Amino acid sequence: MSTDKRPAAVMFDLITRYWHSKAVGVAAKLGIADEIGDGEKTAAEIATALGTDPSATERLIRGIAALGLLAQSRPGVYRLTELGQLLRSDGEESMRAYAVGETEPGHWLTWNNLEYSVRTGNRASPGALGKEMWDYLADNPEEARWFSGGMSSMGRWVARDLAASGLVPRGATVADIGGAEGLLASAILHADPTAQGILLDLPNVVAASESVVARTGLAERMRLVGGDFFKAVPEADVYLLKQVLHDWTDEQCVTILANCARSLRPGGRVIIVEFVLPDGDEFSEARMMDLNMLVMLPGRERSAAEYEALLEKAGLKHVATHPTTTAFSLIEARVE
């Protein structure tokens, strides 16, 4: 955001950011970036390929170009910018699924009820969706696939840092708890051919992730387990929990962590991957994600001290909180 804008212009930008989000989400869902690829196309060519209305497509194209996703090679002919490349399905750092998942009804309708959550302290998702968020996703498999893909998009931010951190010993059995498509465990297995992986998630999530794991070439070393981390987790040397704890209440987090502590092999460790709330009032992804948790789920973002308290209650000892090159932190713990 430009700091030399008039305050009213800055406020206009803030008020209308949801226009931006929906435009990006629709462009991502339609596959506009995939259609352009490494080439260049007119809005009419894109509309023909996608089967969309030509005039409306041109207006959307102009809108996302104004957001910096497209640039004109010559009048009326568009190519992807570096930012726009992130909406391609085949990009290594693709955020297409995240753009769609965050602007589909599950999130979009729920965020419309933020006022309700602020007034009552209750999450808005059951009222907005008619059921709990996880039940809604189970009943809407297409949206659930976008959601899981979006979680993997965020995982890519931190996967390299985790694999290079040295926190996971060579040859370890690594369990990706609530891992959606198992991206973090996959990063470890790619970096260490002697490691073994386990992906634990809800049965419907695991079923949808089988083909994703198969495409990684790791199917023989990655065991997929449909289960409930509130009841038990498979035995492992290392547990990875990326953006799992922020979904749940303190009591529920302690249950998950205690299950990990109970099944952790001797000398093993738990690695929590989360945004950590800062002490100051500067902009923070953690603060905005905390609002998302307010409307969506029972959980919240937490400070470093709050995570340490959860670990202690679960019978785990906080070892260190490691920064990464992303907004995530790696919170390392062992059995006391």
Explain this structure:
The strands form two sheets. The protein has a seven-stranded mixed β-sheet, with helices on both faces. A three-stranded antiparallel β-sheet has the order 1-3-2. The protein has helices spanning 7-15, 17-30, 32-36, 43-50, 54-66, 96-101, 105-111, 114-120, 125-129, 133-139, 141-164, 183-191, 203-215, 250-263, 285-296, 304-313, and strands spanning 41-42, 70-74, 77-80, 173-177, 196-201, 222-226, 236-242, 264-274, 316-323, 329-335. Helix 2 (17-30) crosses helix 5 (54-66), helix 4 packs across helix 5 and helix 11 runs parallel beside helix 12 (183-191). It has two domains: 7-101, Arc Repressor Mutant, subunit A, CATH 1.10.10.10; 105-335, 3-Layer(aba) Sandwich (Rossmann fold), CATH 3.40.50. The mean pLDDT is 95. By secondary structure, the protein is an alpha/beta fold. It is globular, with a radius of gyration of 21 Å. The protein is built from 16 helices and ten strands. Helix 13 (203-215) links the parallel strand 5 and strand 6. The protein is 49% helix and 18% strand.
Helix-strand blueprint:
Elements: H1 7-15, H2 17-30, H3 32-36, E1 41-42, H4 43-50, H5 54-66, E2 70-74, E3 77-80, H6 96-101, H7 105-111, H8 114-120, H9 125-129, H10 133-139, H11 141-164, E4 173-177, H12 183-191, E5 196-201, H13 203-215, E6 222-226, E7 236-242, H14 250-263, E8 264-274, H15 285-296, H16 304-313, E9 316-323, E10 329-335
Parallel strand pairs: 4-5, 4-7, 5-6, 7-8
Antiparallel strand pairs: 1-3, 2-3, 8-10, 9-10
